[in-house]
From TrEMBL:
The lineage of its organism: Bacteria, Pseudomonadati, Pseudomonadota, Gammaproteobacteria, Pseudomonadales. InterPro entries: NAD(P)-bd_dom_sf, SDR_fam. Belongs to the short-chain dehydrogenases/reductases (SDR) family. The keyword Oxidoreductase applies. Signal peptide: none annotated. This is SDR family oxidoreductase. It comes from the Bacteria. Keywords: Oxidoreductase.
Length: 243
């Protein structure tokens, strides 16, 4: 596998499992040193580190809750002290609480927006302040923002805001050759996808299946590469023709 990210350093929030894990492993296989940022699942994060090391790569795991500002500052400080200045930041951490709109509580709203929206905003802000010139800032949104879906209004609303952060920030960092983009996965085969939803989602796709985390990770790696130097301010869908 071509190591076109050799010498680069990457931070991926929410990368102990699922799509975040796949992104971290793909970046590492392409040569980047990676920070596995996790909120609570230390054992899974350490497994990702070991997987990277087994590939001959370099990785660290750092506990950080992106809904807490001090955790974000500490996360960046620790990455810089152990791996050096960052070249790639992937804001992936997020939560989903799915129910009819009339059933959401203020606690649901606060926890969702604190993590998915405020957390992403300040992760991206710190990236803009600290990342090397020529760097890549990538936010993981959701292909669901392009669909009419019931029971997901809070989650998709929180992601819609992130897409606008990307558009704004992409116009602010050009002088430093930094690109800012969103990648929006469609229905993807992770532990969050129930069997019933997997069946329904597969029927929506012309390929009659859902996506795999590695397929999302491959797109993220392209956006993180020098080959994507003219891709900026975009929201790239990875949904197999569903959205």
């Amino acid at each position: 596998m071509e190591q076109y990210l050799q010498g680069k350093t990457a931070l991926i929030t929410g990368s102990s499992r699922g799509i975040g894990r796949a992104i971290a492993l793909e970046l590492a296989q392409r040569g980047a040193a990676v920070c596995i940022a996790f909120r609570s699942n230390k054992d899974e994060a350490e497994k990702v580190v070991k997987s990277v090391e087994s590939l001959g790569g370099k990785a660290i795991a750092v506990k950080a809750d992106v809904s807490i500002m001090d955790d974000i500052y500490r996360l960046y400080d620790e990455v810089e002290s152990k791996l050096g200045k960052l070249d790639i930041v992937v804001s992936n951490a997020g939560i989903a609480i799915n129910k009819p709109l009339v059933e959401y509580t203020i606690e649901d709203y606060t926890s969702t927006f604190d993590t998915n929206t405020r957390g992403a905003f300040f992760v991206m802000q710190q990236a803009a302040l600290r990342i090397n010139d020529g760097g890549r800032i990538i936010a993981i949104s959701s292909g669901g923002t392009k669909l009419l879906l019931s029971g997901t209004s809070l989650y998709l609303g929180s992601k819609g805001a992130v897409e606008q952060f990307v558009r704004g920030l992409s116009k602010e960092l050009g002088a430093r050759n930094i690109t800012v983009n969103a990648v929006s996965p469609g229905f993807t085969n992770t532990e969050l996808l129930t069997e019933d939803l997997r069946t329904i989602a597969a029927e929506m796709s012309p390929f009659n299946r859902v996506g795999e985390p590695q397929e999302v990770a491959a797109v993220v790696c392209f956006v993180a590469s020098s080959q994507a130097s003219w891709v900026n301010g975009q929201n790239i869908g990875v949904g197999g023709g569903v959205m």
